[in-house]
Amino acid sequence: MNFSFTEEQLALQDTLQRFVAKDYTFEKRQQFMAGPDGFSRDAWNTYAELGILALPFPEEFGGLNGTALDIYLTMRALGTGLTLEPYVGTVILCGDLIKRLANAEQKASVIPQICDGTLMLALAHYEPQSRYRESAIDAHAVRNGDNWTLQGHKAVVLGAASANQLLLSARTSGQAGAEDGISLFLVPADTIGLAFRRYACHDGTRAADIVLNDVVVGAHALLGPEGQAFPAIMQAIALTNVALTAEATGIMQALNAATLDYLKTRKQFGVALSSFQALQHRLADMAIATEQADSMALLAAIEMGSADFAACVQRASGAKTFVGQKARLVGQDAIQMHGGIGVTDELIVGHYFKRLAVINSLFGDLDFHLQRYSDMILPA
Fold it and tell me: How far apart are CA 219 and CA 55, in angstroms?
């Protein structure tokens, strides 16, 4: 297994790190978060210019044929800047579903718009009663001639406030909880019958609950074979969870650097806090935990190339569990060593900690993935 990066990958990482350091400072991020979109449209356009919006898509549709390893490097760099743009939802999560389920005509229509930054997408899949269970879908779609009528309620749809189009999951057959019978529809966000309740998440990103009241879409809105979207949804969520672990390791690295800098500056009893042996030991523990988490995120990204559906889901759950445990240690220690100032809005450390908490909750928390991982390895 090759753990080395190519020159192109290292150049991409360096470019993104310089972008974050220069154009995505903490002060600018605060301004973006307070704006009407909750993120920067200019930054999104820069992502398009840098090519990271086109990264995972095939060349025939204007993409760059990137891999999960390229996504790992991108997310780790973006994590240090706590970027607010809906990159995960549009490019990684919805982008993977488009690649897996859309026909050639749909891909030719959607992917180039993602690549040039004119189209943002959001996946409306989870529901209030689902509690991370991907198959617990009650929303339903009924065929009426050449059209489909959708009814249901979707919860915590990330990026829904800014999305031009939604990927809506609905049951076209089967009972709630069954894996078979779930279909996916590509629906414009301004379609009649969609009701949004928008709000800010704990980390400053935006989400929405969506109620579907007799939403009528044409037959062309269906992605992939009817009732067979579940495996693609599971694989896209697995890939997204691996990307989130990479983002978490970028945040952990930034927390270590910020904590070390603070301890070197802050003095007690006339000496810098960094001279205290007990705090040096905690810093060492944070550094070790970050390296372990980064290694696991890298391994999971490499293994996402497997054609084995179950193996991808298992490895993503294992990575999410392990990195979540290490992120909790690093985040809590960073806050404690900063003291009271660590939880104020004026310092980026508290915002790093909030983002780690949200990452742990997205698409299954630590306990959920630990249970899934243990259940999947039990037969072996």
Answer: 30
E-assigned strands of 194-320?
194-200, 206-218, 222-223, 267-268, 271-272
Q: Are 52 and 72 in contact (CB under 8 A)?
A: no
Tokens of 77: 């760099």
The overall longest dimension of the chain from CA atoms, in Å, is 80
Question: How far, in Å, CA of 63 to CA of 56, rounded?
Answer: 7
Residue reference for tokens 């800098």:
261
Tell me how many degrees the CA angle 69-302-245 measures, rounded to the nearest 5: 70
For domain 231-377, the CATH superfamily is: Butyryl-CoA Dehydrogenase, subunit A, domain 3 (1.20.140.10)
The structural architecture, per CATH, of the domain 7-119 is Orthogonal Bundle (1.10)
Residue pair 35/206 in contact by the 8 Å Cβ criterion? no
Name the DSSP class of 5.
Answer: P
pLDDT band at 119 (very low <50, low <70, confident <90, very high): very high
In this structure, which CATH number among 2.40.110.10, 3.40.50.720, 3.40.630.30, 3.30.70.2470 belongs to the domain 122-226?
A: 2.40.110.10
Q: If pLDDT is split at 50, 70 and 90, which confidence band does 1 have?
A: low
Read off the amino acid at residue 201. Answer: C
CA distances 218 to 113, 148, 149, 186, 223, Å, are 21, 6, 9, 10, 11
* Helix, coil or strand: residue 187: strand
Q: Rounded to whole angstroms, how far apart are CA atoms 255 and 249?
A: 10
In angstroms, the CA 213 to CA 50 distance is: 39
What is the share, in percent, of the chain residues with pLDDT greater than 90? 83
Q: Do the bridges between strand 121-124 and strand 165-171 make them parallel or antiparallel, or are there none, so unpaired?
A: parallel
Residues 6+ apart with CB under 8 A from 360: 324, 327, 328, 366
**Adjacent-strand bridge partners of 154:** 210
In whole angstroms, what is the distance from residue 12 CA to residue 66 CA?
12
Segments making up each domain of the chain, as ranges: 7-119, 122-226, 231-377
Cα separations in angstroms, 358 against 5, 223, 242, 352, 355:
29, 29, 15, 10, 5
Q: What's the pLDDT tens digit per position in 257-267?
A: 999 998 898 88
**Helices in 53-187 by DSSP H: which ranges?**
68-80, 87, 95-101, 104-115
